[in-house]
Amino acid sequence: MDATPEPETQVDEERGTIDLVVKIDQQVQYRVGTIEFLGVDSMPREKLSESLPKPGEVFDSTKLNEFFKVNRAILPSDASRDDVSVRRDPKARTVAILFDFWTCPSRSN
Known about the structure:
Blueprint (H helix, E strand, L loop, with lengths): L3 E9 L4 E9 L5 E8 L3 H8 L12 H9 L13 E6 L4 E7 L9
Parallel strand pairs: 3-5
Antiparallel strand pairs: 1-2, 4-5
């Protein structure tokens, strides 16, 4: 979550090329603190949790994208990465993940 990219470039003017290497300093690792689901029943909640890291495991944001692919069939049809909130606790080095699948009621005018 707190990564610092460090680009290194080498210019070859004769060939008209540039080599670019980006080194990533991962900084501090965060662990999963809590995972919460809003707007889903308890049975789907258990199934959805199977494809996520467990509390205490190292947080990897790519797992969130995989989560949506693996669970597409049981998620609400409009579910997306926009429905996920990840809050960091720098002191505890944990993240709280919130999936909010509540649908907004339609308004009648």
